[in-house]
From TrEMBL:
Recorded family membership: Belongs to the CDS family.
GO biological process: CDP-diacylglycerol biosynthetic process
PANTHER family xref list: PHOSPHATIDATE CYTIDYLYLTRANSFERASE
Transmembrane segments: 6-39, 51-69, 81-98, 105-122, 134-152, 173-191, 197-215
Protein name per Swiss-Prot or TrEMBL: Phosphatidate cytidylyltransferase
Length: 262
């Protein structure tokens, strides 16, 4: 527990400090985390040192690049990168005479999209006019959801939510997590910490409460399939980057796609 607390405090101070500063240090941090997140997924499948794994790293970083940085390689786009990656990986199947299977290629492409766009929308949120407030608004709701689900599930949980994927999660805990997400949103609204009207705030809080937990379950499913306890060991007592940011990688793209920050 002591190690978990120390790691959490140090990581939080560094992340909050760099997030508040913003600019290129924040973008570089996000790209670094994206690369580590992709490594953690590839390591689960024991593909972290393969050629198609290398393609996955490069594609993840390109997808996660901030839009203003993409202008440096204009007219090359993220779509171009995805198409080239698909074609290159198909070439690999021919060169390797089917030793590289299509499920390996699918895993690399899917993982690159999942991790790359997840981290990309963290940067896209930060660069908004009120990006700092929105970023921490969503993160606080995610943390509240996680904590609420844990404590409510621990004290009141009886009915299992999805035992095959995560045997300790309960329906009562999931409802508690959503409640705590809404509670944080109401506090933000009452204190005028974020420049949004009440209805969008409530919609966002419910989406964060529901899909933050789905993001957590999705990461748990990865770990169940590949029989690993944690996605990594970078954060002693906390696991890996994906263990800490699985909900955020699901929630931030969703909120942007639904244009709830606009």
């Amino acid at each position: 527990m002591k190690q978990r607390i120390i790691t959490g405090v140090i990581a939080a101070v560094l992340f909050i400090g760099i997030t508040l500063y913003g600019s290129w240090p924040f973008s570089l941090l996000i790209l670094l985390l994206a690369g580590i997140g992709m490594y953690e997924l590839l390591r689960m499948k024991r593909m972290e040192q393969t050629f198609i794994g290398l393609v996955g790293y490069l594609l993840t970083i390109l997808i996660a690049l901030p839009e203003q940085w993409m202008k440096v390689i204009d007219p090359f786009t993220k779509t171009d990168a995805i198409i080239l990656a698909v074609l290159l990986l198909l070439v690999v199947t021919v060169v390797h005479k089917n030793k590289t299977e299509y499920n390996d290629i699918s895993f690399v492409l899917f993982s690159s999209l999942y991790v790359g766009f997840g981290f990309f929308y963290l940067v896209e949120t930060r660069i908004l006019e009120n990006g700092v407030q929105l970023l921490f608004f969503v993160l606080f709701m995610i943390w509240a959801t996680d904590s609420g689900a844990y404590f409510v599930g621990k004290s009141m949980g009886k009915r299992k939510l999805w035992p095959i994927i995560s045997p300790n999660k309960t329906i009562e805990g999931a409802v508690g997590g959503i409640f705590f997400s809404i509670l944080v949103a109401v506090i933000y609204y009452a204190a005028s910490f974020v420049d949004l009207s009440l209805l969008p705030i409530l919609i966002i809080s419910v989406l964060v409460g529901v899909f933050g937990q789905i993001g957590d379950l999705a990461e748990s499913a990865f770990k169940r399939i590949y029989d690993v306890k944690d996605s990594g060991s970078l954060l002693p007592g906390h696991g890996g980057i994906l263990d800490r940011l699985d909900s955020a990688l699901f929630v931030f793209p969703l909120l942007h796609v639904l244009h709830l920050f606009g």
